[in-house]
Design brief:
heterodimer; A: mainly alpha; 15 helices; B: alpha+beta; 2 domains; four-stranded antiparallel β-sheet; 44% helix
Chain lengths: 451, 186
């Protein structure tokens, strides 16, 4: 698999190409052209949250029975995107896939920021967000505890664990590269910044050995964690007696869908970054090819989920379930069902062709189509199920209000602002792991040559 | 590995190599010559290098396991305890319901294992650390880019400034530097 190895000639060029981006950013104008719109979106977040906290959840389109609405469907959407980063980074590390090294850093950063956006949604959806700490079990004068048999409490623990583990995994993975930024920095404020966050790393063989033990174990634990977190999110829906949700296919269906949307976003980010930062010999067309294959694989697994869900309903023959299915296929929100099916699975089929997989522009567009499709799927899952619940008298249509949309735009602003700051100031690719892979591949070639 | 105290004027001697293979070879020969307090610095992890240095520390994996046990134990205990402290009887279902408790138990197992793993890794590595005598040597800047360093500490029983320097030169390095102790700020 030597064609995966970056075409950089030696160790130094790898560090030059990656670490110098943070110390002396190549195209500041283009960065500002992205950062200013991101800040405007962030402003939209601040305004929307202020309005929401001032007037309450009533400014949204939520009603009864649609209590969850856009806030929770976006929460599932953002967290789902996050999972691909951990999978790329941890799963491929354990499988010793060297090509992961060009992707894992920014994929993990994407995870981190998507989880932050995701975790903010249930908080602002609380109605009384200043009491968010009631979700945590702490001794209190009311002598009550959270209901540990409820998926809502499971969710609190799952997301909190996922956030902390993602931050730590990403951070210990970036420390050696922060050390090389520290060693190359010439300006005082960069020296202090990288000096503090590099923790005094000096590449001692003993340090590396312990670092490796810890990094691999964390990776090994992170893989089942991803599966557990998104399975758990599916329980929020599946553990209740609601027709359209109460199905055992949900956990695997959700995990596959999450990985699918995430790989689509990673492909999009890879296409943009390699173009914007001139990293074409580190993120090669071979990487795009592999990312596209992963997207296709997870997409087909998600398609199977759609099929299994429909089969389940038809085979179960429960009148309520059949009614919900009818609402999805031909009801007033049928656009979200067919939109999801079309955007998720039709353009995706182009990825069977190698020429499409290595074409950055096409890959980006297909990725975008999958992301919009997966967003529609989450919207469909919540809205088509809830707007006609068990109690016919409470049936009601749902229309997101302007503040729903402005908060969604704002949440994208949170994501882009954080991501752009990451691109500007931190090494976006793992330089030391690329160097390690270059060395190991050289050793392997030597050994096979000898044999 | 214990480092020389500030009482020793010299921290150690450092040989620079420009290829990882040369460093591995140099470490092997230094160990064969009987040196014990030896360290190697490289820009990326080199498989087997720490073992050449006599590293066989499995405390981090054990701490990870311990963290997992502590996390899972605390997680399960918390759910059993709180269900007894504030019993909610729902249709006479059991108070302690292991299937419903498993998810949080698993999440806290993961959290405990990862926290213990990373904190113990940093702790046994004596990190974070703001400064180190090695950082005073100018050429050490490249230890994170593309140079490879072998360090013999001055508290090694066989350490002798002149002889050790001559030995390090015999390994055919790019250069040999003396590492002084970091001066205390006035």
């Amino acid at each position: 698999m030597s064609d995966i190895a970056p075409s950089a000639r030696d160790f130094r060029t790898v560090t030059d190409e990656i670490v110098d981006i943070s110390l002396d950013y190549p195209d500041r104008r283009a960065w500002w052209m992205c950062f200013i719109p991101a800040l405007l979106l962030l402003l939209s977040f601040l305004v929307s949250v202020t309005v929401l906290f001032w007037y309450g959840v009533g400014v949204w389109g939520n009603n009864i029975p649609m209590g969850w609405a856009l806030a929770i469907s976006n929460y599932i959407f953002f967290l789902g995107i996050g999972h691909a980063g951990t999978l790329i980074s941890a799963l491929l590390l354990l499988l010793v896939q060297h090509w992961r090294n060009s992707l894992n850093r920014f994929a993990e950063a994407m995870t981190l920021f998507a989880v932050i956006c995701g975790a903010l949604y249930p908080l602002v959806h609380l109605g009384r967000p200043w009491l968010f700490y009631w979700m945590a079990p702490y001794p209190n004068t009311m002598t009550v505890w959270p209901q540990f048999k409820s998926p809502l409490t499971w969710d609190f623990f799952a997301v909190l664990t996922y956030l902390i583990v993602s931050i730590l995994f990403w951070y210990i993975g970036i420390v050696p590269d922060l050390a090389s930024a520290r060693d190359r920095a010439t300006r005082r404020r960069y020296q202090v910044f990288f000096g503090l966050f590099a923790l005094g790393w000096r590449g001692s063989a003993r340090h590396w050995a312990r670092w490796r033990q810890s990094y691999r174990l964390t990776a090994a634990i992170a893989v089942p964690l991803v599966v557990s977190v998104h399975s758990e999110i599916s329980m929020l829906l599946a553990a209740g007696p609601i027709a359209g949700w109460n199905s055992t296919v949900f956990p695997p269906y959700f995990v596959a869908g999450a990985a699918f949307s995430g790989f689509a976003v990673v492909s999009m980010i890879a296409v943009v970054l390699r173009h914007a930062l001139g990293l074409r010999n580190l993120v090669t067309s071979r990487h795009l090819d592999l990312l596209a294959k992963l997207t296709l694989l997870c997409g087909m697994m998600t398609a199977y989920g759609y099929w299994a869900e429909t089969f389940d309903t038809l085979y179960g023959n429960d009148p309520q379930e059949l009614e919900t299915m009818r609402d999805r296929l031909v009801g007033v929100y049928a656009w979200s069902y067919w939109g999801a099916v079309f955007l998720n699975f039709v353009p995706l089929q182009l990825l069977w062709w190698h020429r499409v997989r290595v074409n950055p522009a096409l890959l980006f567009l297909i990725g975008l189509s999958c992301v919009i499709g997966m967003w529609m799927e989450r919207y469909m899952l919540l809205v088509t199920t809830l707007y006609r619940d068990w109690l016919v008298s409470s049936w009601q249509r749902y229309h997101p209000s302007i503040w729903d949309w402005s908060l969604f735009a704002g949440m994208l602003g949170v994501f882009f602002t954080l991501f752009l700051l990451f691109v500007r100031f931190l090494p976006v690719i793992s330089a030391f792991e690329i160097k390690e892979a270059m060395f190991e591949e050289k050793q392997e070639r030597k050994e096979t040559g000898r044999a | 590995m214990r480092e020389p105290t500030a009482a020793q004027r010299v921290f150690g001697l450092m040989a620079e190599f420009n290829r990882p293979e040369r460093l591995i070879e140099a470490v092997r020969r230094t160990r064969q010559a009987g040196f014990e307090r030896v360290d190697a610095h490289s820009p990326f992890p080199i498989e087997g290098l720490a073992e050449e240095l006599g590293f066989h520390d499995q405390r981090v994996p054990w701490f990870t396991l311990l963290g997992g046990i502590v996390g899972a134990g605390l997680g399960y205990w918390m759910q059993v305890y709180t269900n007894h402290a504030f019993p909610i009887d729902i249709g006479n279902r059991p108070l302690v319901a292991p299937p419903a408790f498993m998810l949080i138990t698993f999440e806290l197992l993961v959290l405990g294992a990862v926290l213990f793993s990373i904190v113990s890794m940093l702790g046994f590595n004596h990190l974070p650390r703001l400064n180190h005598p090695l950082f005073d040597v100018d050429s050490f800047r490249l230890a994170s880019t593309d140079k490879f360093f072998l360090v013999v500490l001055s508290n090694d029983p066989r350490f002798d400034l002149r002889q050790t320097r001559a030995f390090l030169h015999s390994l055919d390095p790019v250069r040999v530097d003396q590492i002084g102790q970091t001066e205390e700020p006035e």
